[in-house]
Amino acid sequence: MARPGGGRPQPGLPGTRLRSGGPPPHSGRSRWSGTAQRGRGHHRSWRRRPAVSTPAGWAGARNATERCGPVSVRTLLERAVGTVERWQVLDAPGYQVEHAISLTFLLSGRYARRLQDVLHGVWLGHPLHPFLVAVPIGSWGAAAVLDGLDAAGRGGPGTGQAARAVIRLGVAGAVASAATGLTDWQHAHDEARRVGLVHGTLNGTALALYTWSLADRTRGRATRARLTAAAGYAVVLASGYLGGVLSYRHRLGVDHSESRRDPRRFTPVAEVADLTEGRPVGVYVDGVPLVLVATGGEVRAVGGRCPHLGGPLGEGWLHRGELVCPWHGSRFHLDTGEPAQGPSTAPLPCYDTRIHDGRVEVRRRARWRTPTATTAVEEASR
After folding, report:
1. Cβ atoms within 10 A of the Cβ of 57, count?
2. How much is the pLDDT for 263?
């Protein structure tokens, strides 16, 4: 039976295989209808024809569009963040900034390590950067409210002066938070490094805009000063979103030590004969990494992952009786797990130990319990 259309196969008929994004096979047409073969009586048209030309195909395409729906804000943000994470062109400037930071600390001489510990927040027991970030965000947010009241004519005579004061406070807080943020960022890797570089660039842009706004306020250019400050706060909001990505997705500044499935009762983990004096040994208890260290006839046990970025402490070493992370040099007291040197700000989980039948047994130490480490001599005397 002859087929309609001059014997050429038509879409939707039996024996015809549809190709997505183009015309039916052997139709004499290319993907664009304007490139039809000459001499066939077809007029030239620059409108692209639909890939599926049957009523059933139209319904399927319409249903697919309805299922997809409009692109959400979350999807747009995820795409933007994903683009930044894959943007390898940021690697070269990122390493240059890291080297500049390292050189700055190197020039600090013997105070370099103390300065880094202060900026990391080791003394605070918590990263210092998020603590300081609240200062510019809150101050500049208050300035936005004051500028809005002043522009609407509902502010008092001191509204403009108050806006200048809180902007100055925000600028000071931004400089301090930038120093702490750069100190934390220099240890990031790959995607987190790229996101952090864009995050810091946006913060620097916001700082420049608010500095410009202060200069305009001094010169009496109130309208332009308010517009510049509004643009700066928009940049701050975008930067804050990337800061959340760094914290909650890439876990920068988050405690990486495993402590949720620790043994609550004494559990055997290793043979005493397998331990070497002064050498950390990594073991696992129900999938949780631990480190055993035999020193002075005692066996101590702490968490096996560095709280900073999860470095394997079983591959570390002892320095003056302190456990050193092989990745970034954090040092921890074996008795308490507290950090003696950054960049880690969180302590290691500690474990009570005892020796039973030639095997080392451990259990999670409660925070109120005093450290206990059973020696082989004490066990033999029982």
Report:
1. 15
2. 78
Q: State the burial class of residue 48 (Cβ atoms within 10 Å of its Cβ: 0-12, 13-18, 19+).
A: exposed
Confidence of residue 31 (pLDDT cuts 50, 70, 90): very low
Task: Indicate the CATH number of 267-380 among 3.40.50.300, 1.20.950.20, 3.40.190.10, 2.102.10.10.
Answer: 2.102.10.10
Helices (H), the chain: 55-68, 73-86, 91-107, 112-120, 128-151, 159-185, 190-218, 222-244, 376-380
Kindly report the backbone phi and psi dihedral angles of residue 26, in degrees, each rounded to the nearest multiple of 5, phi listed first: 60, 30
Helix (H/G/I), strand (E/B), else coil: 276: coil
pLDDT tens digits for range 105-140: 989 888 998 999 999 999 998 899 999 999 999 999
Give the count of alpha carbons within 13 A of 287, CB side only.
Answer: 2
Query: What does DSSP assign to residue 314?
Result: G
Angle at 337 between CA 334 and CA 343, to 5 degrees: 110
pLDDT at 258: 66
pLDDT tens sequence across 153-185: 887 888 989 999 999 999 999 999 999 999 999
Answer positive or negative: Cα dihedral of 249, 251, 256, 262: negative
